[in-house]
Every structure is written in C-alpha cells, then in structure tokens.
Input
Amino acid sequence: MLTTSYLLKTLEIVSPAIGRADVSPQLANLWFDGKYVTGFDDTVYITTNCELPIEGGVKGALLLSLLSKHDGDKEIIVAQNGEVLDLAIGKRTKAKLAIESLDARGFPEEESIPNAIIKCNKGKFLRAMEHCVKCVGADISKPEYFGITLEAEQFEGAIALYSGDTSTLVEAVVPIKSTPAFKQVVLPVKFCQQLLKYYPDKDATLEVIETPASKSKDGRPNNGYALLKTPYVTVYGRNLLITPSEGDSTPDFFERALKAATTFMPMPPITKILERASILDENRDNLKLSVVEAKGKRQLKFYINKENTELTDISNPVVSDHEPIKVLTSVKNIKHGSLLQEININSQYIIMRTIDGSASIVQL
Output
C-alpha cells in the first residue's frame, strides 16, 4: 500500500533539486520513470528509488503541498491517464495533475567513471567540506565565492578545498590515495550540502571530473561534474564554470598569504567564548571578530552583532576602553573552538590555522 508518509519521505530526498519555474517550467518538475524520481534545477540533480506507475514530470511543489496537508498516514492511489495524473489521498482528496513527457526533462545523464573516484579518509574529507560550506558567500562576481573550489595541483598526494567571499577565505587540505581526474573545479554549494548528508554512508562514492566544454554531453559550456552515489541516492552537480579573472587565483592567494605569515602565536582558548555566543545567538551566525589596540599591542576580540543592535563583547570579562579598529565579517567556520591552534595578525590579514590543517584568512 502506498502511503503519504512513504511518498513524502521519498520526495523530500529529491526536493532540494526542484528548480524555479520562472527560469524554466521543466525545472520545477519532479520526474518519474517507473523506477526512480528525480529533481533537477539545471545545476544539481538528485535521484532516488521510487517505483510508481508514472512516467513524466509533475510540478514538484504542488505535489509536495498536496501530500503534506494531511494529518496522519493516508493511503494514496495514483493512476496515469495519458498526460494527466489522477491522485487520490485518503477518502476526501482527489486531484488531477498535468504530466509532462520525459522527453522534456533535459537533465544530463553522465556515466560513472570508476578511476575518477576520490579515495580518502571520509571523516577528514567531510570535516574539510563542512569547514568550507559554512564560509560560502553570496557574492556572484567569481564562482569561487558561491561554490567550493577543489584544487589538485597545489599539494602532492592531497587535494585542497577553498571557499569564502570578498573578505574571508578558508582552506582545508585532505590527503588522498587516488589520482584526481581534475586540476581545479568549483562545486555548487547545493551539491556540497547533499554530499555532507549522504557521503557518510559506508558505500557512498564520490567522483569529480573535469571535462572540457567540447566534450560536454549536452553541449553546454561547463567544467565537468561531480557524482555522488549511494545504494539509494545519486546526486549530480554541474561544476561551475571558471572564468579567467584578474589577480591571484584562490590557491595562489593562500600560498602567498601563508608564506608572508612568518610568525604564528597560540590561539587563545575560545571554547568559553563560543559557549557564551551560543546563548546570545544559537547558530552563531552573528559572531564577529575584531582587532583592538591595547597597550600598543593588537588583541583579538569577539562580538555578537545582531541586526539593529549594538556590539556585545563576549571575548573577555575584562572590558577594554578602546574601540575596535574594524568589525570583520562573520567567522562562521569557527565551530569548535578547541580545534583552533594558532593565529597570525599582520597589517593585511588575520590568519587562523587549526590542528586538522585547515586555515582561514580574514582581510583587514
């Protein structure tokens, strides 16, 4: 018996990939082929098992809305009649939904390439990805600012992950046991969010492939794709197109900044600071880092700065009379204070390094 709870649970897996109808009506569909259901927003698709007698695309938001409005678990009966889906939920709800032909779905069906699988310690890779996902910005001037950059040439036997915005950049390095099938790609953040959810599965594999535009199967200019596969979910992400830009690339910038930071000092214990921050701001989205001048020395101070409120100093019971030089961007990557190991403050940057090899650079 098909029930609302089962179908909702299944469709919620693919719902993050439901696209916007104003971009293309087909992107707003959930696509059924009798064995699987898939959502595709033109950058990411997610597919999972779903054996239903339906072949075609149905408006995803509408279907989810119909299913979620019912209290308790209701029996569902579905029947496809040509271009119409007859849907009965329980004894009271009946609906007719338009079905679009599978020929209109248009999402890429890239094949798995076994030698492109990244072989590494999953725990280290997931910590690195989590570190970077927290710092993705909203600036769309560069792909590196709204995706996660993977770079395979900077470190021998390892890949580097980067993210950030115009004022904060983070780096994490992960040792690998395989030869990457890419040099430098930018993964869409939505794909990375799904990776954090499903990659912990013991049978999950991750492939990252750099493909010249001339070899793109659907003819679109792109920089390849990433494919996450588990026994029950497949997630595809179209790599963001990297365009040449002025100045250093993100990897080059990190290399230059870290070489210039010759002296690091131990990071002051901030576990208590983060505990106080959580009380004032549960997710610490408004945690700010600042630098103050005190007795001729620069000192770090942490603040909570919520919208339309004054700065709340949470860094130390000792209150300084000096105003902060500058309140910097949110330091979202500071999740576990005990992991922060050392810090360098110079005229241009604040550079923080952790015991697991990650680094964060905040431009002053």
Notes: Residues 316-339 have pLDDT under 50 and may be disordered. The chain is about 15% helix and 35% strand. Helices lie at 4-14, 60-68, 122-133, 189-198, 250-260, 271-280. The radius of gyration is 24 Å.
